[in-house]
Structure formats: C-alpha cells, structure tokens
Fold Type-F conjugative transfer system protein TrbI.
Amino acid sequence: MFTVAVTLMLWACITALCLHFWPVEIPRFARVDIGSIVFQQQQSLAQRVKPGMDAAEQAKLFDEAKAFGVRLDAALEQVGKECQCALINTAALLKATSAKAIPDLSARVADILKQPAIGAPAQ
C-alpha cells in the first residue's frame, strides 16, 4: 500500500511540474464584424458612383475596391499578430455567453484600414 501511495504522489509531482513548465495552450479568439466593415466600404463606393461615369472613373473605383480587399486582408493579419489569437467573423458566432468571452476587435481593424497605405499617393 505504501508503494502505491508513493507512486501516486510521484506521478502527481511529475504531472504538476510538466504543467508548470509546459502549460496547456488555451486557444484564443477574437471577433471581427467583417460584414459591417465591408458594408461601409460598399456605401462609400456607391456614393461615388454617378450616372454617365466614363470607363476611367469606373476602373478607378474598381481598383479601389480591389485595393480595399488587399488592405483588409493585411489589417486582419496585423490584428491577429497583435492579439496573438485567431480571428473569427462575428457572423459565424452562434452564441456567446458574455460580451467579454470573445473580444470584438472590429474597431481596431477599421482603424488600420483608415490609415493611409504605405506607398500610396497622397490625395
């Protein structure tokens, strides 16, 4: 009986040491409302569309829309690195028991998108 008790205590100590030096990683998540960010961009572009626009103006708007997609991807990448977490779309959440359970980083993504792109011409 004594041997069993000592063995169990030894394994408990080894387990505690392993968990102390190699902690179990709990996945971290943050949410981003991609729908609202894209909707705001669509609204901005829609307000600039005018009847009778020439092909050059239409091409410029199309290029801006493509550039937005690239900037959005870069902003999501940057925010993911900043928080060291996986980003999920708010629309993918079925239910969160608490508003603090999964932090919302939509505002941070929007802030990055508002910054001028590096190498972009000043307007």
